[in-house]
């Protein structure tokens, strides 16, 4: 993951003389987010929990999804049942809508649906949950138009309403949710989507989010956009097949991904956010003093070899 | 362009009985943004100005870029010079960084740069301009963390500071900017980028935006991500070639795209925004009463045949 935001210009050599502008005085140098991450200690990182990590293996590679059972216990449980019974194996990605979502599940769901096995056909939506479900929230000080409070919980972007005492996951890039029809219990986790574009935050509290993609997003974002309404693939368009979806705990250890996530409740994380809120020179000329929730990066890395 | 945000669930038939939830009372039905657009009059749309429209033709199709000379007069003029002299023909897309930008220009710019012809090698950055440059601003009432005021001007997302009397284009999805090095005059328009992911608004007022992609974004967003730092393609990775970049005015009329943009200063546009700010039932269960700048859609369509 690259946090640097420098735009390299190929066509020009580096210029030795800085040309000042009245409206763009140079900012003092400051450590960047990636500079700060380089100073992290091993204890600032947490491994993914194999009991709450999914591997969606495509012919092109692996998409790793961290589940968030605190925010959607019933939906996550149903997805785990589907996965344990290998429901997704041989299904496909059926939708790619530009600047919105990729969605996967049963391509024949409307005509000849695959059996859900022992999983439930209806699971009540968990659009928000009691605030007490979330033990790991760390507030972000920035204003947000979609939620009274925002922050992170175990690396997930979160909105919360202290008056209503509710909390919910936010539709940032990479978040994974449960497709549904009009009824709030019409989803069951057999059809999932990942956000592949600008955060559609109006979906917050309207649909159940169950986790986020922590690795492999380009496998979803580079898929051809579907030619039918809402980016669904037509019958004659290729659908990316799903080889298998497995719970990490059910995969032999040697075949597991070895990822770890920067702890959002570690002090270093606040420094990472501040480095993104107020960037320093020499490239940056203006510091926003603001960080929108979905622009806050939660670093993920391969666990360093011992 | 699809404005509908319904998530179809394939695996379930439509359910006849609505199951109420304590926390998700049904919202009253309201016209959606696409419903409202269907009621538009021909005069609610404006054609693209051929003198300020670029066609970037790739082997895979055409990317149409509307330029915004009001916001970056010097940079737009230099780009037009480059385009008129066919500078971009035979160059390539050199960078695709996931959830960030695609960038194009001279792949050999650091070693054996192509001549810029009569274009300037240095153009002062136009990170913001006097508020008087912008005659078409219509304010959006929603709060924004990156700008004292936000709105749209001729379909471009805009931030402005009434105290400083400055205005600038905002880094929403699809916006096109001028790559630069550390110095504020180190860009010249020979290296351009388009935002392909969540809006990196911290770039606002740090780099010159010159326009936006109004058609063809998937040609950029589905490109393989580059394997080098910041998503640059390595020497052994394929670079998407640029067949040509032309000003629409210099293309025979029969070969021009026939697009029109909903006028952001027409009253209907405020209704479109309000429909996105407060969505109605039956799918939506919670109305945000907020619309983040980069979630406001500026509809573009083919001009209807007479």
Automatic annotation (TrEMBL), chains A, B:
Transmembrane segments: none annotated. GO terms for molecular function: peptidyl-prolyl cis-trans isomerase activity. Residues 1-24 form the signal peptide. Keywords: Isomerase, Rotamase, Signal. Gene3D superfamilies: Cyclophilin-like. Residues 59-249 form the PPIase cyclophilin-type domain. InterPro entries: Cyclophilin-like_dom_sf, Cyclophilin-type_PPIase_dom, E_coli_cyclophilin_A-like. It comes from the Bacteria. Its EC number is 5.2.1.8. This is peptidylprolyl isomerase.
């Amino acid at each position: 993951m690259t946090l640097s935001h420098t735009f390299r210009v190929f066509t020009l050599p580096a210029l030795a003389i800085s040309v000042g502008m009245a409206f763009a005085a140079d900012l003092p140098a400051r450590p960047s987010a990636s500079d700060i991450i380089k100073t992290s200690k091993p204890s600032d990182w947490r491994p993914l929990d194999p009991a709450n990590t999914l591997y969606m293996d495509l012919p092109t590679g692996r998409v790793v999804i961290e589940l968030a059972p605190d925010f959607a216990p019933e939906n996550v449980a149903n997805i785990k049942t589907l996965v344990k019974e290998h429901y997704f194996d041989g299904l496909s990605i059926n939708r790619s809508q530009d600047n919105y979502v990729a969605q996967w599940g049963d391509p024949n769901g409307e005509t000849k649906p695959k059996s859900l096995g022992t999983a439930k056909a209806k699971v009540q939506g968990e659009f928000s949950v009691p605030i007490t479900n979330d033990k790991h929230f760390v507030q972000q000080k920035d204003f947000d138009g979609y939620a009274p409070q925002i922050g992170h919980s175990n690396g997930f972007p979160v909105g919360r309403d202290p008056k209503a005492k509710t909390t919910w996951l936010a539709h940032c890039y990479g978040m994974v949710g449960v497709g549904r029809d009009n009824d709030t219990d019409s989803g069951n986790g057999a059809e999932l989507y990942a956000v592949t574009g600008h955060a559609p935050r109006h979906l917050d509290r309207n649909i159940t989010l169950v986790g986020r993609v922590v690795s492999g997003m380009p496998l979803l974002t580079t898929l051809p956009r579907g030619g039918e309404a809402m980016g669904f693939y037509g019958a004659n368009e290729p659908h990316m097949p799903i080889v298998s979806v497995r719970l990490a705990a059910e995969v032999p250890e040697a075949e597991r991904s070895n990822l770890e996530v920067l702890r959002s409740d570690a002090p270093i994380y606040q420094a990472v956010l501040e480095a993104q809120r107020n960037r320093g020179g020499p490239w940056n000329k203006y510091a926003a003093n603001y960080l929108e929730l979905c622009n806050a990066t939660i670093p993920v890395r391969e666990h360093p070899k011992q």
